[in-house]
Specification:
136 residues, alpha+beta, four-stranded antiparallel sheet, two-stranded antiparallel ribbon, 21% helix
Length: 136
Amino acid sequence: MSRARQPPGGPLDGYLGKPPELTFPQKWTLSGAWQRAQRADARFGPVDDAHFDVLLERERGGWGDKHRVLFAIQDGRLRAHCDCKSYQHRDWCAHVAHLWWRWSRDQLGVTDLDAEETHLSPPWWLTVDDAEVARA
């Protein structure tokens, strides 16, 4: 099982500079990650104000590895990062996609680290490339 560790100090202390901003790849709604994010059973929960642990069911049954996912708002932008290999190679994965799917359907609270507020759905002022398609 993958073991992600919480950086010492604040929730974003382990990053050099600003954490990556979430961007959606071209045709992301057709991607295998997006399809899995919607179909798979999931276990997920907050670790701190910025991170979630996400565990997705595998397509052939059984559970995949647990992954630590950064999913928070900072400087008015949605920051996202996952420790899985798919995210490391593509900057996109089913774990991040699952959190977006849940949040865009009012099923997840995401923290604005600057305002210290929790948003139960994407706020009107937040823009993410091509994300508005998924809100409909």
